[in-house]
Amino acid sequence: MTSSYIVMNHWQLMLAASLILINLIFSFLLKLKLEKQLWIASLRMVSQLLLLGYILEWIFALQNVFMILCLALMMATIASVSAVNRTKRRFGKIYWSSFVSVVSSSFFVTSIALAGIVQVEPWYNPQYFFPLLGMVLGNTLNGISLALDRFMEDLSMRQNQIESLLAIGATRWEAAHGSVKEAARTGMIPIINSMMVMGIVSLPGMMTGQILAGALPLDAVYYQIVIVFMIASASALGVILIILIAFHCLLNARHQLCVARLNSVTKDTF
């Protein structure tokens, strides 16, 4: 198999972009009122990817560890904000909590993969660092967002039950461990479902990209296996961290449920 690939031009990209018209037509005909969101999402996706492409070309040329880590932190910051923006409720320091969870889980797992599994030299080689980190961040923020949203909703719905348990002497963990368990399950289910059908129903993005770039299918599979286990472990770490932080914020050391700290959000964020 050759290592060459087909370079796409601007006209091909424009033709691909025209496919979004299918979504717009269905939204208009069915009166889904998603036209604005589709335009915004499309424009943001294209501009963000093009900007990232130019930045990565510059970073690849520099091979500067400081600049690489700065860009990685910027990516993690955006991921942590996006995770919170998808939730229906907020509490004080929720953005900081999300940032800590995203950075701790994604950087820890990516570091292990780069230094111990793939054994990249140097470990911050942007050709490997950014693709691996980006895929981990994208999936980790989804898990964190789902788990955090489920945990806050569950505490609100079970407020009377939890407060009754606390009133008769239960600890905060005993009273709320059901909510913790359900939130953790909600955050981890998407990656488990994805793993179940991977290779049979779906061809993963990284594997497809490597094959299109000319890599041998088996080599692409090896990399994809590494990526999936990275995503699964980072998602689990991120989910557990954000739930524990939220748990300590919303149930204090005196074993009191502080639902008043939660504020509902009505405005959709894209």
Spatial order of strands in the largest sheet = 1-2
Count of DSSP H/I helices: 10
**How many β-strands, per DSSP?**
2
Question: Poorly predicted ranges (pLDDT <50, ≥5 residues)?
Answer: none
What is the distance, rounded to the nearest whole angstrom, between the alpha carbons of the first and last residues?
Answer: 42 Å
The description of the largest β-sheet is: 2 strands, antiparallel
- Chain-averaged pLDDT: 87
Class of secondary structure makeup: mainly alpha
Oligomeric status of the shown chains? Answer: single chain
- Helicity level: over 70%
Shape, principal axes of CA atoms: globular
Q: Which radius of gyration do the C-alpha atoms yield?
A: 21 Å
Helix and strand succession?
Answer: HHHHEHHHHHHE
In terms of DSSP E residues, the strand content is under 5%
Describe the structure.
The protein is mainly alpha-helical and 270 residues long. The protein is 74% helix and 1% strand. The protein contains ten helices and two strands, in the order ααααβααααααβ. The chain has helices at 10-17, 20-29, 35-62, 65-85, 94-117, 126-157, 159-167, 172-197, 205-212, 217-250, and strands at 89-90, 263-264. It has a two-stranded antiparallel ribbon with strand order 1-2. The radius of gyration is 21 Å and the shape is globular.
List the helices and strands and how they pair.
Blueprint lengths: L9 H8 L2 H10 L5 H28 L2 H21 L3 E2 L3 H24 L8 H32 L1 H9 L4 H26 L7 H8 L4 H34 L12 E2 L6
Antiparallel strand pairs: 1-2
Helix pairs in contact: 4-5, 4-6, 5-6, 5-10, 6-8, 6-10, 7-8, 8-10, 9-10
